[in-house]
């Protein structure tokens, strides 16, 4: 019998991040690309309503996908991988139990999703070869139901992380408008490549007006930096995925190369000035999206800003800024090279 490979805490962290990054792209990209289009086409045919429902529902599978892809990072077999996916979903917070039955409410708390996927993998590996002929019966119970229950118990405490960050960001709204715009833009630009949900925070704190606009602009600023950096070292499909909304696939890069926040914050500051001067507005439901599905720009236009000014704030300033910052930081100041933007799907 071959010796089981041992992993350090760092190995677990990197592999969980890598699996999560891939799962987020798979789970969210269909709705990010097609959701808005299908919704707009509903008046022209009922099939588009069905298609919109399908791509939207696909997002709810994200916790399962995280669990399965994290398990695959550790070379678990198909059955073990599916059980890890089940445990991850059960502990994700992606559903509510109501009198009417189970109701899906989102993709869950991503921090808890990552925590439970790691625990589930650890449990499966610890039990390998110890359950004998009862493996098929006991593994789903011990890991699927057992670790899933642990996830529900940790969820309220892990969710406090998101709530605490939301409270800090909410305090920014009490500041002078320009300072508020700068701080909110910076905060959301960094959060979008972290496990924290920008959409959840935007809705939870009820951020609106210029604050919501600044949040969306900050996310856009990060998107622009990632796109410009990614195109140098990644395949075009990876860069396109980032542009279309898969910024969180860069979470492993944030851990491996923390200096990635330098250009992100710089562009968030630059773009925030544009948002302030052009008075870009938003609502809680659009604060966490940036340019994904054109949600932010459309909302800003609906709230009175001209389409030209919206285009300048959401596309011209962030992307031109990202190009200038990229040249300045990589060619002039030599603060980093483009390898920090390299998307790696495995840590083997």
Automatic annotation (TrEMBL):
Highest taxon above the source species: Bacteria
Membrane topology: Multi-pass membrane protein
Pfam families registered for this protein in UniProt: PTS_EIIC_2
Residue span(s) of domain Phosphotransferase system EIIC: 15-342
Subcellular localization, as worded in the UniProt entry: Cell membrane
GO BP: any one term: phosphoenolpyruvate-dependent sugar phosphotransferase system
Alphabetically ordered keywords of this record: Cell membrane, Membrane, Sugar transport, Transmembrane, Transmembrane helix, Transport
Protein name: PTS sugar transporter subunit IIC
Organism listed in the record: Marinilactibacillus psychrotolerans
């Amino acid at each position: 019998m071959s010796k089981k490979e041992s992993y350090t805490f760092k190995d677990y962290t990197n592999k969980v991040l890598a699996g999560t990054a891939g799962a987020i792209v798979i789970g969210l990209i269909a709705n990010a690309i097609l959701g808005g289009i299908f919704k707009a086409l509903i008046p022209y045919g009922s099939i588009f309503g069905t298609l919109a429902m399908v791509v939207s529902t696909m997002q709810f599978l994200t916790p399962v996908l995280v669990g399965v892809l994290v398990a695959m990072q550790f070379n678990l077999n198909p059955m073990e991988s599916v059980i890890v996916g089940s445990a991850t979903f059960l502990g994700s917070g992606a559903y509510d139990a109501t009198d009417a039955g189970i109701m899906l409410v989102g993709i869950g708390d991503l921090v808890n999703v990552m925590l439970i996927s790691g625990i589930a993998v650890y449990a499966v590996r610890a039990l390998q070869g110890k359950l004998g002929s009862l493996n098929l019966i006991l593994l789903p119970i011990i890991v699927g139901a057992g670790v899933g229950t642990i996830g529900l118990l940790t969820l309220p405490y892990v969710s406090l992380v998101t709530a605490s960050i939301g409270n800090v960001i909410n305090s920014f709204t009490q500041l002078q408008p320009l300072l508020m715009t700068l701080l909110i833009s910076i905060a959301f630009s960094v959060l979008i490549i972290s496990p924290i949900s920008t959409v959840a925070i935007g809705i939870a704190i009820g951020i609106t007006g210029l604050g919501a606009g600044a949040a969306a602009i900050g996310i856009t600023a990060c998107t622009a930096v990632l796109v410009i950096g990614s195109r140098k070292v990644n395949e075009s499909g990876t860069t396109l995925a980032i542009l279309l909304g898969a910024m969180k696939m860069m979470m492993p890069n944030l851990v491996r190369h923390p200096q990635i926040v330098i250009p992100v914050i710089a562009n968030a500051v630059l773009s925030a000035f544009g948002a302030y001067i052009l008075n870009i507005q938003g609502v809680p439901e659009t604060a966490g999206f940036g340019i994904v599905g054109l949600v932010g720009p459309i909302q800003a236009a609906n709230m009175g800003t001209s389409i030209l000014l919206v285009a300048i704030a959401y596309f011209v300033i962030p992307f031109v800024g990202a190009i200038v910052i990229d040249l300045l930081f990589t060619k002039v100041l030599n603060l980093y090279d483009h390898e920090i933007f390299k998307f790696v799907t495995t840590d083997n």
